[in-house]
Amino acid sequence: MQSTRFILINTSHAGNVGATARAMKVMGFSDLVLVAPRFADVLCHEEAIAMASGAADILARAQVVPTLTAALEGVDFACATAMTPRDFGPPTHEPRSLFADLAAREAAPRLALVFGSERYGMSNEDVYRCHAVLSIPTHPDYGSLNLAQAVQLLAYDLRQAIGGFTVQPRAAAPDAADARAVQGLLEHLQAALIDIGYLDPAAPKKLMPRLNQLFNRAGLTHEEVHILRGIARQMQKVAPAAGSR
Predict the structure, then answer these.
(1) Domains assigned to the chain
(2) What does the pLDDT look like over 1-33, one tens digit per residue?
(3) Is the CA virtual torsion 236, 201, 183, 225 positive or negative?
(4) Global pTM value
(5) DSSP letters of 92-156?
C-alpha cells in the first residue's frame, strides 16, 4: 500500500493536478496517473508546477493514459471516490476503516484511489470498475470538497493506516529559573520600581507578592530572568532623568 496509485480522471484544472502532487508528496506517495486530462500538457503547465510547490518530481514521474482501464494496470484493489453512495455498484465505506482493514490483511493489496473530474465526479461506468467506493464523512448540508482537498484527506488516512510518520520531538525546553534567580529578579525589580516612583516603600501593599505569584505561574526561564533584569537596569538608568522633569 506504500505504492498506492492516485488516479485523476478528466481533470480540467492544472492547479488541481499540481496541488494533488503536493498532497501526495507530503504523505509519502508518488504514483500519479492522469486519465484523459483536459489539457494534454497539464503536467508541465505553469499553474500545475506552481501549485505543486516542491513536488514537481511527482509531476515529472506522472503518467497520462487514455482510459481508466489503462490506469488500473497492476492494481489489485481500486477505490472510487464519491460524495454519495450509488444505488448499484461496489459497497461504500468510510475511508479510515477500509484502509485499516486492507492494511491488516496478510498480503496487503496494491491499491488505487480514483478521483473523478471537478465538475462531474466519476461516471457510473468508472465506479463499477472499482472494488469499493470511499465517501469522506462531511457535513450533511455541504459535502463538496475541492479535488486536492479530497486527495489530501485520503492520503492522510491511508498514511495513518500503514504506519504514519514519526513526529519529530521538539527541542529541549530551556532551563527553568530556580527560586534564587526569581527572588533576585524581584529584589532588583522592587528597587527599580521605587526608583521610578511606581512603588512607595512606605506603603508597598501587596505589589511584590503579587509579582512573585505572577512569575511563579509564568515559570520563568533563566533567559527570561536576564531579560527582565535588563529592563529593571534600564529603568534605574532613566529614573533620575524622569525625576528631574
Answers:
(1) 5-161 (3.40.1280.10), 179-244 (1.10.8)
(2) 778 999 999 999 999 999 999 999 999 999 999
(3) negative
(4) 0.71
(5) EE-HHHHHHHHHTSSSPPPEEEEE-BTTTB--HHHHHTSSEEE-----TT-----HHHHHHHHHH
